[in-house]
Amino acid sequence: MKYRSLGRTGILVSTLCFGTLTMSPCQANLSLEEGSELLREAYEHGVNFWDTAEFYDNYSYLARAVEKLQQMPIIATKTYASTTIEAEYSLEKARQELNIDYIPIFMLHEQESRLTLEGHRPALEYIAEAVLRGTVQASGISCHTVAAVEAAIEFPEIDIIHPIININGTGIRDGSLENMLTAIKKAFDNGLGIYAMKVLGGGHLISRADEAINFVRELDYIHSLAIGIGSRDELSANLFYMQGLTPSQNVLDSLRGKSRNLLIEDWCSGCGLCAAGCPQGALSLQKDVEGNSRAVVDNSLCLFCGYCSSRCPAFCIKVY
Fold this sequence. Notes:
By secondary structure, the protein is of the alpha/beta class. The protein contains twelve helices and 14 strands. The protein folds into two domains: 3-256, Alpha-Beta Barrel (TIM Barrel); 262-319, 2-Layer Sandwich (Alpha-Beta Plaits). An eight-stranded parallel β-barrel has the order 3-4-5-6-7-8-9-10, surrounded by seven helices. A two-stranded antiparallel sheet has the order 1-2. The protein starts with a strand and ends with a strand.
């Protein structure tokens, strides 16, 4: 495993970051023992960088895995907090549920532009103060837009950016792939740490996994690639790909037989909360033959992140 210093933070991270959303309740829903063991196994293979979020509801997996390790991994988590009180709550929740004294990387989740960053400034300033106190090591944002990357460069409180980037530009909500690459390069040149998300386009690029991973891996201005891992075969494949190698045929055969789907159950009430919260605009409401509204998905836009399932009050949306 190769390691890089994450921008000006000096935090040394593996070039493969374990994306834990895939194993979480809104996707694979692994058991606590399965999930924690997978994290521990990844760590033993050198993957010291784990990405999570308060929204993923999976801190218990990470806490259980950390109990079995001699050294703490670099954990990055995210919050939707916009106020000082909300940020304080999220930080303390993370520290308590992860059972660690400090959070290595604490970020604002899904920022969109300068306006959203300004709107979340109280939370961002609280995180910056937490860095000074030692309860956070570095601050940052995650984003699906070029505008947020460009804006983050001008906020001194931000150390790290977690932007969407993949070979097709799938999921970039504004601008082109070239625009995003230019913005990321500028952020890198300004000393920010960069770790990529949705390298496989939320599963749309699985059939081109080697090409997709190599494309981002070879960008020298990206420090690490966060890739969702939900099984030992996925871990094995990603470890090989990150070395520029081809996984075993057995692993490839296993993974090629998998696909992701978003299932919306018949009891959908058409409340619209899922559509309102979809970062990609992949969900909308339509009338069925009886005139009742229900959610429908545009699979060409869906990144299978599972965020919609957590927003559904009736638990009728699942990623398979």
